[in-house]
Model the fold of this input.
Amino acid sequence: MKKIGFLINPIAGMGGAVGLKGTDGDALGKAVELGAKPMATERAKDTLSQLKGISLSEGLTILTCSGSMGEDALREVGLQYEAVYEAGNETSVADTKAACELFRELAVDLILFCSGDGTARDIYRVVGKSAPVLGIPAGVKMYSSVFTVNPAAAASVLEYFLRGEAMVRDAEIVDIDEDAYRQDILDIKIFGYASMPYRPTLVQGRKFVFHGENEERSKGNIARFASEFMRDESMYIVGAGTTTKAVCDALGVEKTLLGVDVVQNGKLIKRDVNERDLLGLLGKGGRSKIIISPIGAQGFIFGRGNQQISPEVIRRVGVGNVIVIATPYKLEETPYLFVDTGDISLDRAFGKYVSVVCGYRLAQRKEIQAAS
Amino acid sequence: MVQTKFVLDENELPKAWYNIQADLPTPLDPPINPATKKPVTPDDLKVIFPMELIKQEVSAEKYIDIPEEVLDIYRLWRPTPLYRAHRLEKYLKTPAKIYYKWEGVSPPGSHKPNTAVPQAYYNMREGVKRIATETGAGQWGSALSFGTKLFDLDCTVYMVRASYEQKPYRKSIMQAWGATCLSSPTDKTKSGRAVLEKDPNTTGSLGIAISEAVEDAATHDDTNYALGSVLNHVLLHQTVVGLESKKQFKLAEDYPDVIYGCVGGGSNFSGACFPFVGDKLRGEKPDLRVVSCEPTACPTLTKGLYTYDFGDVAGLTPLLKMFTLGHDFVPPPIHAGGLRYHGDAPLLCKLTHDGVMDAVAYHQNEVFEAAIIFAKTEGIVIAPETAHCVKATIDEALKCKETGKQETIFFNNSGHGNFDLAAYDAYHDGKLVDYEYPVELVKQSLANLPKVG
Done:
């Protein structure tokens, strides 16, 4: 009989569609002002709904927190649970930490959580390596390796773990170096190594920031090519990252490192946009394209760090007008590319392969896996 | 019992090469001297080629005799066998009949000495002491090293850097035959130094290596240049393959419905298929399909522009009318190094442009998957270049399986892969990259370049 601790950060991911870099600190209030809606509970329910068969057959015990931190989702899905931690109406980091202290005392076999990097870091601070952790992806920043590629995969990994068929390995807990980020430098800080169950292709790797001369030369080649074909008068929605920044540098346009910007005819149209901004611009008509780079070693084209480019935005632009760019070194570390827009039929519309621009007049065919 | 090999006796070696120019309905567009903008003259070419090869280059004679001295050396390995691949057929459960011409039996291991030997011979006859050349995968460099040694000539080979590093034993075999093999671009030539200055870490290209070899020949009185593909006289020499194959198909009481070959510069496939294409041009086999197979990483025939372009990067060669990706195109470092060329043989390009021949392109991984199937069924570990037409053959055979059609499929098995095992390792390790050419984005980038004049 296995026992797991389960918790949700109910506000995780709210910053994404409105263009914020997370919901830490002041960002939550700003996200609400901008019309952000909670999404973590729905993501958690996607995972939980697949656990019903497992909980019956494996005799699983689920310990959780009250209300929106876990109990509500479990009840709505129809799973048996025990609420061992009483959270208030307004939850906070303190609740996450206190719940995890309790899970540790009660010797859970694994902690299943639904959030982003910030909560992953909070959990790690309490649990360390005393119990494996498994993250359902719901945050804006999800650079840590503890997240599965999608909510359904979390259920699969958990099932393998409960049957003793998953490996347990070290998984990086990372987050953006906040000081560097304020200076517009993308640098990933590793906070530690948690333990997590692992099955190939079902978990995402740590985001590597690739440095070195060859990486920079590759970016330069990609940027040179992109700056040539981007002169076609289309409106370009430019995703986040260092490679897309190199493209904007080649165009002479200032780019938001972790945000989405809009460029047309070599000029910046709008900076650090959210979904509403994009839909407004698309509503004016004209040809539009998306130019985007996969997120580090994880290989997510959509669904991680650029949720402003929502399913509605992608549909209006057209899947065929999505241009993916990445350096050869990034692609070498990324066996597949993943798409997790939140809209399963849209994910599947990307097909089995995508051509990724990786140099000057050069591309690679990469296999795409829809996160579903 | 199904016969496996169709073998000709030595005295059945063709005594003359076949010149498809005699059967073309419209003549080939001539190469252009970039300085004069007029068709090149023999005088333009004699700086780097012997006169006999220049005559062959422009000849419209249907057959050109093979010298006895060349035949004598051909007999070391020719006629090569035509195989019926009935093990592959059984594995695929196809009703199709698959045949291949096995050129890997030559000392260098490929079709390349079919032209290396006569080129060395004609140069020797005209007093040349050294030949400079380029090589991609190393097959041509090996073959010319072999050919020049037979006639006591020195040989300098400029090998594309990516292949020089990927296939070190190619260099070893060239050295065994007495040649000097250099990693191109080198600092020995002006064109090499110009490339290194722009990009010291370039992986190199056949276009760059050609520039270096041509410059070497043009700047040394005792040195000529030899090209392993593209030019008419090279394709002419290679027709010994197709001429033998026609005789062997008679022994098999068969004739191809479709012919496949891998194409980098075009010589191996042209050699194999031109004698059959001649039948098609003369109306004897109007339904014959002839398909070139190339990599998606360097898709000259399937994505290139049909226009005049330089044969090399530095612009030292005449302008040739051919499909091209642009003479400054540096193909990615795929393992089929012999297919990494921005252009193709003008003769093959004309036949493709005119609809007599067709072309398909494949990614690296699917090509090696086909090579593994071939190795496990027919036993031969083939060169990565050759694997492109094996992929096409397998696909065609599987189509026949679906339709029940008993087609006769013929491909030129141009060489072994014994020096390419690192490529097979990379495939097994999942390290092969499926490069491709983003043709629509390239067109977009060219459409938006500033217009001048």
Notes: The longest strand of chain A covers residues 188-198.
